[in-house]
Each structure stands twice: as structure tokens, then as C-alpha cells.
User: Fold this.
Amino acid sequence: MTSTIGLSTYAFFWQWHETAPRPVGLIEMIDRTADLGVSLFQICDYPLIESYSADELAKLRKHADDRGVALELGTRGVTPEHLARYLDIARSLGVTLVRSMFYSATSRPTPAEAEQNLKIAVKAYEKAGVTIALETYEQVPTATLMDVVEAVDSPALGICLDPANCVAALEQPSDVVSRTAARVKNIHVKDFSFSRRDGWVGFTLAGIPLGEGLLDYQAMIAAVRPDEHGINRVIEHWVPWQGDSATTCDLEDRWTTSTLETLRS
Assistant:
């Protein structure tokens, strides 16, 4: 088994965001992914995908297939109805992994409620051969997330590892990695650092090109062993706004190129 390097909609965030003069769509993001020699694209936190018709989903899948790009999905929430909707989209796109989070804009389940929801939803995912990967992030302690995943105990449920998120809850990235390593199904790759705010009052936690920040990438890979387990590594960015769209989007593209070079070296 091998680990595929992929890009996410978060690698193009400022380019499809409403601040962009001409927001790019999924077709263009897939084309640019393929042009960079990348064979995986994760459509993550991109709500417009929910409005696609069956015909539009079929055309998107065909375009990705024609460009040699496999697709993954990402959403938020664990209600059975929502996850069933994303399983339908996954089937239409040939997706085998759906990243999600405990909370959505309309639902904040307790751990017990999340566990029950996932026990219901995961049965259909098991039958379809699709995996749910719950992301590590600051709103849910990693220990709580792992308790739920282990209680559900399904081969179709695991962790989307992103230790950068958990820093905001004062969790050490190394602790997040060690606690989740055995259950990781997907990795979001982004580096991060702290910098003093203007006036030296407080700090800003923001992204930085891979290898220049606080993420111990090599230790994470050594713990998770993605190549042994076929765990894909998906590039994301936290690119700070640079004052205008053109400058920010240009920096985003340069970070993507830099991160790909680092991962491939």
C-alpha cells in the first residue's frame, strides 16, 4: 500500500472564496491539481457540492477521471441524515473517504449523541466501502474524539489527523499524533507557527510553508506510517490575508508548490 499526496479545496481557499475577483470552481481546481502532477483532490467544506444534480456530479466525476485525479469529500456533522447525504454524493463521485467533524453549523451533539449517530450512519458506509474520517480539532478534545471512535469500533470509521488545529485547545501536536496514530485514516498536512501581534500584545497562530514551522512532520509520519497503511496525505494551508486577493492567491500557490517539493523530496 502507498500513501497518495493530494490537494484540498483548502489549498485554493482564497481562490474560491467570495473575496476572489473571479472565484475558481471545482473543475478548475481539479485541472490545476492534475497540472501539478497530483492525483488526489479532496473537496472539503465546499457546501456547493450538496446542490449538484446527479448529472453535474457525473460530469465532475468524469472530468476528474479524465484528468487522472481521484476524489475525496469533506463535510461537517455526524447526524445520520447528513452523513447519508454525503454517502450518496460519495457513491456518485467514486469517493472512498469522507472527512467530517463532530459539530456543524446546525448541530452540536454530546459525545454520547455523536457515538449513537455514528453507530447508525457507519453501517451503510461499511457496506459501501467508504470510510468516515473524523478530524482532530480544537472544539473536541482528542481524548473525547478517540473515545467515540473506539466505542463505535468500525473499520469504516477513523481519524483525519490534523495536529495544527488542536494547538488552539492547548494540546501538544505530538500528544495528538500519539493518541490517534492507530486509528488514522487520512492526514491533513499543514505547518503552523506563532508570531507576535502588532504592538507585542498577544500572538497570532497562522500557517507557514511546510518545514518552516512547528509541525514535526517526520515524527508524525514515523508514528502513523502512511505508506504502510495506505493513508493519503492531503495538503491544506492557513495562508494569512496579504491585503489584496492577487497577492494572497499568489502566496497560496507558492505554498502549494513548496509543500509538494518538500513532500516529494
Remarks:
- The two ends are 19 Å apart (CA to CA).
- The chain has a mean pLDDT of 96.
- The chain has one domain: 5-264.
